[in-house]
Amino acid sequence: SAGTRFEPGGGATVGGVAMTELAARFGTPAYVIDETDLRERCRAYRAALPGAEVVYAAKAFLCRAMASWIREEGLGLDVASGGELAVARSVGFPAERIVFHGNAKTPQELSAALDAGVGRIVVDTLAEIGHLAALVSFGRRQKILVRVIPDVDAGAHPAIRTGGEDQKFGLSIASGAAGEAVARALGQSSLELVGLHCHLGSQIVTPEPYERAARTLIELLGRIRDAHGVVLPELDLGGGHGIAYLDGEQGLDLESYARRVGDAVQAHAAWLGLPAPRLIIEPGRAVSGPAGLTLYRVIAVKRGLSRVFVAVDGGMSDNPRPCLYGARYTARLVGRRSSATTRTATIVGHHCEAGDTLAEDAELPADIRPGDLIAVAATGAYHHSMASTYNMTGRPPVIAISGGRARLVVRREEPDDLMRRDVGL
Ligand code: LLP
């Protein structure tokens, strides 16, 4: 019963549970995660890339239940902060399967990562190499990857493009910084350089940029061998695998990604006389995004001069992506039958800000009215994790569906939660 179903009569279910029932039981707005579907996505990744290490990018969506699902499915975990690491540790996530990221890791975060015994730390600046080396306990060696810039432009929006030169992530190959980082890392006895990392950006829907990046990084592996006489065994190609947000859209096809990137790695390594490096990939959105949806209640419907506004009980606090990236979504009326023709409406939130829009051009029945329930699809990644408390709005709960049953995994944030950290006068 995995997956989300919308029936013409207004019936809508997630993993076999009616959305109306979820709204009644847990209130709105609410994030709903189809655990079964999410686990199937984890398995599909492992099956498509049996020789690779699949590391889920926690930033897309993380809570303790999620960390447990990822652990149980045998994936690794990419964490990018001390907070994400703490969640992973709280569920006993195997430390050797954790990859620690960040372009500006604090000394406390580096120490926490070392204390936890994380499997890989991805170094992102020259200075970090010396700092990290000095923090490693005597007699130990920390495995690291060096993050380099492959100079490949890909990704859906400038704010989520990280493969090109002159942005804050990674070390430039062209400028010589990447080569210098490698030399420095190899010179530190407390560090074990095991490979290279890159992350091109997000919401990439074709394998081609990954093939190019793989070739660029393998060429660097060849130059490292020639200069230092070492063959680095790992190649981390990051995440960024795109998903469909709108009807008719196509995400990155996992099978063709696996085949084409796998072939490119094999062929290019062979051409340079290198053993094929072990691949690491870091999908976030493609694992959790399609497994989630958000339920909202319609509060008000208003006719503007040239369009209709449908205002719901959530908004930019639970989904900042339309504001940040111009992201577009599919929204549907659920829970009742409507024979009205559909028309284009703008779904707006309840925040005190004119740009608080969830969908510019939603197709909704013309008789949409207060009290109706709306489901917005593909909100399992970068929604809960990017939610804010703007206007002192508590963040929505996360409800997990599995085995035809719903359970709360993160409760709704209440005004008391928000005030608890306000120490007063
Ligand atoms: N690995 C690294 C090093 C990353 O920086 C990221 C995402 C990922 C993996 C996972 O990327 P994914 O497969 O989820 O695309 N907030 C933006 C996305 C920012 C992604 C940042 N890094 C959004 O809502 O679209």
UniProtKB/TrEMBL annotation:
InterPro entries: Ala_racemase/Decarboxylase_C, DAP_deCOOHase_LysA, De-COase2_N, De-COase2_pyr-phos_BS, Orn/DAP/Arg_de-COase, PLP-binding_barrel. Substrate binds at R285, R321, Y325, E353, Y382. Pyridoxal 5'-phosphate binds at G240, E282, P283, G284, R285, Y382. One of its GO terms (biological process) is lysine biosynthetic process via diaminopimelate. The active site is at C352 (proton donor). Pfam families: Orn_Arg_deC_N (PF02784). The keyword Lyase applies. Its EC number is 4.1.1.20. Its cofactor is pyridoxal 5'-phosphate. The modification N6-(pyridoxal phosphate)lysine is found at K59. It comes from the Bacteria. It catalyses: meso-2,6-diaminopimelate + H(+) = L-lysine + CO2. GO terms for molecular function: diaminopimelate decarboxylase activity; pyridoxal phosphate binding. Gene3D superfamilies: Alanine racemase (3.20.20.10), Lyase, Ornithine Decarboxylase, Chain A, domain 1 (2.40.37.10). Pathway: Amino-acid biosynthesis; L-lysine biosynthesis via DAP pathway; L-lysine from DL-2,6-diaminopimelate: step 1/1. Keywords: Amino-acid biosynthesis, Decarboxylase, Lyase, Lysine biosynthesis, Pyridoxal phosphate. Residues 37-288 form the Orn/DAP/Arg decarboxylase 2 N-terminal domain. Homodimer. Belongs to the Orn/Lys/Arg decarboxylase class-II family. LysA subfamily. NCBIfam families: lysA. Specifically catalyzes the decarboxylation of meso-diaminopimelate (meso-DAP) to L-lysine. This is Diaminopimelate decarboxylase. It comes from Acrocarpospora macrocephala. The lineage of its organism: Bacteria, Bacillati, Actinomycetota, Actinomycetes, Streptosporangiales.
